[in-house]
Design a protein that fits this description.
heterodimer; A: about 110 residues; mainly beta; four-stranded antiparallel sheet; B: about 110 residues; seven-stranded mixed sheet; about 0% helix; globular
């Protein structure tokens, strides 16, 4: 069965630190990859996505992610985090025609001001 | 546009009670989904629908039922609530390139 692993359940950083959140998936075929974010008290919303083409994708608020097919990975990065980046981040993978997403367990990110 | 709306926001049920979680969308999307989110577990798909009149089971359908009589509405029914159904429930729709989520319903079964 397909699965998505997020390596860190909780991450605490200081403002201006660099961020990398890991995401690995298990599926050998063509995949669409997503990062969603849930800010405190808000809806889940799309941060960025990869369908095809350039494996380095840029999303909102200065986030980017790199798809490395050989490693089955789609890690999320931001060079300098802000206090407002405090949120829970979810990696998700779609590998079928019904748009069904398989979700990672999420990473809670806390940024200390 | 309201997007995806869910009611209620919070609910406490006693074991064995039943309830319906409401989900409505005004984006004219065909695909709709119900997820539950448990701490440290990510989102699990309960049921989904590819259009009015068509529904199918997801990963964790036991204890739930759905219907889809219109494009706009996709209610989730719990018939005999159990403590294992304590969770946060999210409804979502599929747009061109992403899923759009409602604000969630926090359900506690005691």
């Amino acid at each position: 069965a397909q699965s998505v692993s997020q390596h860190n359940h909780h991450v605490i950083l200081s403002e201006a630190a660099s961020l990398e959140l890991g995401c690995n998936y298990s599926y050998g075929g063509t995949v669409n990859l997503f990062w969603y974010v849930q800010y405190p008290g808000q809806h889940l919303q799309l941060l960025l996505k990869y369908f095809s083409g350039d494996p380095l994708v840029k999303g909102i608020k200065g986030f980017e992610a790199e798809f490395i097919k050989s490693k089955f990975s789609f890690n999320l990065r931001k060079p300098s985090v802000q206090w407002s980046d405090t949120a829970e981040y979810f990696c998700a993978v779609n590998a079928n025609s019904n748009y069904q997403l398989i979700w990672g367990a999420g990473t809670k990110l806390i940024i200390k001001p | 546009n309201a997007g995806v709306t869910q009611t209620p926001k919070f609910r406490i049920l006693k074991i064995g009670q039943s309830m319906t979680l409401q989900c409505a969308q005004d984006m004219n999307h065909n695909y709709m989904y119900w997820y539950r989110q448990d701490p440290g577990m990510g989102l699990k798909l309960i049921y989904y629908s590819v259009g009015a009149g068509i529904t199918d089971k997801g990963e964790v359908p036991n204890g739930y039922n759905v219907s889809r009589s219109t494009t706009e509405d996709f209610p989730l029914r719990l018939e005999l609530a159990a403590p294992s159904q304590t969770s946060v429930y999210f409804c979502a729709t599929q747009g061109a390139n992403e899923q759009y989520f409602g604000p969630g319903t926090r359900l506690t079964v005691t």
